Amino acid sequence: MKCDIKIKYDDSPASNTTNVILIQVTVDNRIFEDILDIHEFFKSLLIEGVYEYFTCSCGVFGCGGFYTKIEHTDDSYVLKNLYTPEEEFSEEDILESFVSQINWENIISVAEVIIDSLTEYFKNNIGVDLSVGVVGKLINNDTVMRFKDSYDEVKALRSNKKHL
Length: 164
Known about the structure:
Elements lengths: L2 E9 L6 E10 L2 E2 L3 E2 L1 H9 L2 E7 L9 E8 L3 E8 L10 E10 H21 L4 E4 L5 E2 L1 H22 L2
Parallel strand pairs: 2-9
Antiparallel strand pairs: 1-2, 2-3, 4-5, 5-6, 6-7, 7-8, 9-10
């Protein structure tokens, strides 16, 4: 399956020193209605688990969004199921059952596009942070460096697995 993203930057109605980043995810022509939580995405590249993967465009998980289970295989990064955005995750709160297997090359490419876009943003917008959604988690240069570290680590891991 193929994963694509659209990145949009916008002024924040909540702050003069923070702008908003909205990332829309499409997997095999399916457009997910809520935005990608970039922090959760980069954590999920290295560690399988259940993540607050999609969030409301306001940035508050629970207002909207979905938990998604992330699994790793040798060949694929796997999105599995959408769960309601309750305060605590429960397998019983499944909204939709699905499995999307995205090859590692594609998901690593998506991570690279996000990092390149954020790097360019901060080069051109000195002193202006970003939030995921209007009032969501903040992103600054330090955050981008942590995302880059995760990207570099997963890229090295996947490159080593190819050669085994």
